[in-house]
Amino acid sequence: MRTDNQRPSDNFQDRGRGRGGAVGAGMGAGVLFAIVRRIGIGGTLIAAIALGGVYFFNPFGIRDTVFGVLFGAVPGQSQTVETAGSVCAASPANTQACDFSARILGSTEDVWRAQFQQGRLPSYGARAGAYQDPTLNVFAEQVETGCGTAPSAVGPFYCPGDRQLYIDPSFYEVMASRLNAPGDFAQAYVIAHEVGHHVQNLIGATQQGVAGESANQTSVRVELQADCFAGVWGHQERADLAIDDVDLREALNAAHAIGDDTLQQQSQGRVNSSQFTHGASAQRMAWFRRGFDSGDARQCDTFGVRDYSRL
To answer: Which residues have C-beta within 8 Å of that of residue 38, sequence separation ≥ 6?
Structure first.
């Protein structure tokens, strides 16, 4: 894929390297990863469904309540976070990652503005109106958000409380080295997925549920829809960004790598579908592909199908 012909978004902030606050109390990112490994991927609380929750991309994501337990930060509470320096200027790799992220965000803005204007969206009872651009924040170590103070260890996430996206650029290297999901389109999928959560927030999808299903099952529907929305973006930008079959395989590989069953098998040696919060690898790949092949967000209504595992 190429991004040199794509304008970078103006809704991009370099939040610097966050210091002080909860992590300064003695709980660093390395300790967090150790705790997550002890808990087990399947046992972590990855996504919150309520409006005040947080939507994480990566397998080490921890729900807002864990912020409070481990870091002394309660979503919605203000924390003092001192910042130092520019994240984007910290290294050539970060400079490139920031430029790439800003351009992908600009691309999602173009796509979703058009989709909202044309009304090509799942309907949840109220007209969505015009698309409202989210802000993408890059940071290192930790950052203060409308959902609380978050450490880099939680990975990319969307906070509905302030309608902003957050990512530590070093996560792209984590994708390649720890998740075995390299490639620029895999990286773009990360941003497009979190923007998908923003779209859900605007159209009221995060308030949906299916009678008789557990909170985990509702969470899976939310995450699979965000995957599908990411696919819609990819379809719409296939020509402009020169997205080819190699790029598509990168995104599908990333979707497979972060499937709940794949992660549980790697961390626990067994799979427990009752603990799924993001969906199995096959489901994540299928819903991304559904959006990518159709280019129609109305095909992404995971709440309108009885069984989201069968398309």
So the answer is: none
Sign of CA dihedral 87, 98, 288, 226: positive
Say what percent of the chain tops pLDDT 90.
60
Q: At what angle do helices 184-203 and 245-257 cross, to 10 degrees?
A: 70
Q: Give this prediction's pTM.
A: 0.83
Helix axes 215-236, 281-294, angle to 10 degrees: 40
Q: Which two tokens stand for residue 174?
A: 């984590």
**pLDDT tens digits, 71-129:** 344 444 444 455 578 999 999 999 999 999 999 999 999 999 999 999 999 988 777 78
Give the tens place of pLDDT for each residue, 246-255. Answer: 999 999 999 9
State the virtual CA torsion across 80, 168, 113, 202 in degrees, nearest 10. Answer: -50
Break the chain into its structural domains and give their ranges: 12-300
Top mean pLDDT of 23-32, 37-46, 270-279 is at 270-279
d(CA 136, CA 12): 5
**Extended strands (E) in 141-226:** 142-145, 148-151, 157-159, 164-167
In this structure, what are the phi and psi dihedrals at residue 82, rounded to the nearest 5 degrees? -80, 140
Sequence letter at residue 140 = A
Sheet holding 12-19, edge to edge: 55-56, 157-159, 164-167, 135-140, 12-19, 82-84
- Residue 58 CA, chain-centre distance (Å), reads 7
Among residues 161, 168, 295, 153, the alpha carbon closest in space to that of 232 is found at 295
- Nearest Cα neighbor of 287 from 236, 262, 238, 251 is 251
Q: How far apart are CA 208 and CA 204, in angstroms?
A: 7
**Following CA atoms 83, 84, 89, 91 in sequence, which dihedral angle do they give, to the nearest 10 degrees?**
-110
